[in-house]
Amino acid sequence: MDYKIFRAINRLVGRYPSVDAIMIMISQKARYVYVLLLILMWFRSGFYKKITIQAIISACTTLLIHFFIKQFYFRPRPFVNHNVHILPPIPSGMNSSFPSKHTMLSFAVATSILFYNRLLGWFMWLLAFLTGFSRIWSGQHYPSDIIGSALIGSITSIVVNVIRWLWNCFVSCVMHSYNRICAFVRMR
Length: 188
Prior knowledge:
Keywords: Membrane, Transmembrane, Transmembrane helix. It is built from 8 helices and no strands. The protein is an all-alpha fold. About 75% of the residues lie in helices and about 0% in strands. It has a single domain, classed as Vanadium-containing Chloroperoxidase, domain 1 (Up-down Bundle).
């Protein structure tokens, strides 16, 4: 079933060059939208600084989980075992298909922001969904890789949000240090 869904999506590659170009752009450039939004949020207000820190903690935790999964589990990418249409850039066949780092990080950050800002969070969730879909379209991941990665990224953010009392002191320390550095720079 996983391969059938993959084929149904991937066989469209090459038929619609403009969609191919959009999928390549989303797959490779969406992460810059996330970084830009986090930077803009950081400079907006103290409330948004806390959201940014929570999103960064979720992203770092997700990267750690990604690293551990890659150490113990390997699933060949679709283009290794099947004749598929693949869009650039072509990843190494030695990289595991599961989990998708792009998708995990996108959903981790989007979910973190969704807790505090619904409009921006839903926009970022839509972008995360498109990121995952573009990875299937481009022949780099199976649908189950994307669904699993989206769940891991989202659940990681939920857990980080639930246990934020553990790292609330860390966030307060970062905010206090940042404010003191800014005040010191203004005095000079």
